[in-house]
Design brief:
Elements (H helix, E strand, L loop, with lengths): L4 E6 L2 E6 L2 E6 H10 L15 E5 L2 E2 L7 E8 L2 E10 L4 H4 L11 E6 L7 E3 L5 E6 L8 H13 L5 H7 L4 H30 L1 H13 L5 H10 L2 H5 L5 H7 L15 H14 L3 H20 L7 H7 L2 H13 L5 H20 L4 H6 L7 H9 L12 H13 L3
Parallel strand pairs: 7-8, 8-10
Antiparallel strand pairs: 1-2, 2-3, 4-6, 5-6, 6-7, 9-10
Helix pairs in contact: 5-6, 5-14, 5-17, 6-7, 6-14, 9-10, 11-13, 11-14
């Protein structure tokens, strides 16, 4: 499931070798995954074989004591309330001497990342605490979780440093630097898409990617869980009722700060309409690889330093975008959300599956729901604006890539 080799672990952080070099997976990220339930909950089971249903993950405790307080769980045929402790490895419980600390006496589940060596954890007084390993249940590889978390963290960082440092570069050098970082981001996305196809197969990979992207920033995890519980066939046969799904997952949605257009109930309804109109949309996406070739030929002929306006005009990208939206989604998805589907899902999946490399189209594609502050920085740096330089996806990804390698 994860294309990396385990290297070292220290101070609650696992250091691993991934597809794109070493990366860190901190225990805090595993806590976030548990809190958001970003795993295949329908398949969760303790190390001794009992099914686990997470009714509520508990209140995340950022002070001393167990990581989550007052969780509600069903383990086997028993519903219990208690605390949850999260570790990378099952052995960390003993290493941290939790059994001797009364604060951990109410722990009812030990959640770990890696497969445990034991079938239970010894609590205070020899109480047997069941163990749940999350690694086999994760929707993504560890490297992708780490990469997504790094990008999410950037949202809370001030952007002044990017303005100051990049503003000192010559325009040609700046654009070349952004192209390089964008190319690295593209290769990473294709690699993650390839891993998703390997794990799920083409049709399910498309289905999972689409629902996850429709969740936007706040509801990606619950919509990904919906994709797992309700496969594409359920939507094709109309057994997946969007309103019923929304109500059944009510406590999991994040609605505060979500624009009406991104409300999960609306997104579920849109996806239902999309699948009814285009039940074969993953197959249509696969065939899009052949239609891409002449568009790619036109775009590549201009050279890598061509400006976005020239590429879009020569490749007739606006007309191609509209044709794709109609062919794949029957008009159920359009505008910025379709742009996100293309850039974050469809184009990387196509590259991973067919060998066609639409990197140049991805770079000059329309920005979708790009954060306004990133677009603003690029306007200030004159990467966007002026003759031939409309906002485009590639420079935004290049800026993100630069920021990830130059943390504040």
């Amino acid at each position: 499931m994860n294309n990396h080799d385990f290297m070292t672990e220290a101070a609650g952080v696992a250091e691993m070798q991934g597809l794109y070099g070493p990366f860190s997976f901190p225990e805090k990220l595993l806590q976030k995954i548990w809190d958001r339930r970003e795993f295949a909950g329908h398949a969760a089971a303790t190390a001794d074989g009992r099914a686990v249903v997470v009714l509520h993950p508990g209140r995340w405790n950022r002070l001393s004591g167990p990581d989550f307080l007052g969780a509600r769980l069903r383990i086997g045929d028993r519903e219990i309330t208690g605390d949850v402790e999260v570790h990378l490895r099952e052995q960390d419980w003993a290493a941290h001497r939790h059994a001797a600390d009364p604060a951990y006496d109410n722990v009812v589940l030990h959640v770990v990342l890696f497969e445990p060596c034991a079938t239970w954890t010894a609590g205070g007084g020899g109480v047997r605490i069941p163990i749940l390993a999350l690694l086999p249940l994760l929707h993504h590889g560890l490297e992708e979780y780490a990469a997504d978390d790094a990008v999410e963290t950037l949202a809370n960082h001030p952007l002044d440093r990017a303005r100051e440092v990049l503003g000192l570069m010559e325009p040609l050098a700046l654009r070349a630097r952004l192209r390089r970082h964008a190319a690295e981001r593209w290769q990473q996305k294709v690699g993650f898409a390839r891993d998703r196809i390997r794990r799920l197969g083409w049709e399910a990979a498309c289905h999972h990617a689409a629902l996850e992207i429709l969740g936007y920033r706040y509801n990606r995890a619950p919509l990904l869980a919906v994709a797992t519980e309700f496969p594409l066939a359920a939507w094709m046969s109309r057994r997946a009722d969007p309103d019923g799904i929304f109500e059944s997952q009510r406590e999991r949605w994040t609605l505060r700060g979500v624009r009406p257009a991104n409300h999960p109930r609306l997104r579920l309804r849109q996806y239902a309409s999309w699948v009814v109109a285009r039940p074969d949309w993953p197959e249509r996406l696969h065939r899009l690889g052949d239609r891409l070739r002449p568009v790619l030929t036109a775009a590549v002929s201009l050279g890598e330093e061509a400006n976005t306006q020239s590429v879009r005009k020569t490749a007739r990208l606006t007309a191609f975008r509209e044709a794709c939206a109609e062919d794949l989604c029957a008009g159920a998805m359009g505008g910025s959300r379709f742009d996100n589907l293309m850039c974050d899902g469809f184009l990387p999946l196509l590259a991973a599956e067919t060998g066609v490399d639409p990197a140049v189209l991805w770079a000059h594609w329309f920005t979708g729901d790009a954060p306004a502050d990133l677009v603003g920085i690029l306007r200030g740096l004159e990467v966007f604006g002026g003759t031939g330089r409309p906002s485009a996806h590639g420079p935004i990804q290049g800026l993100l890539g630069w920021m990830l390698t130059h943390p504040a």
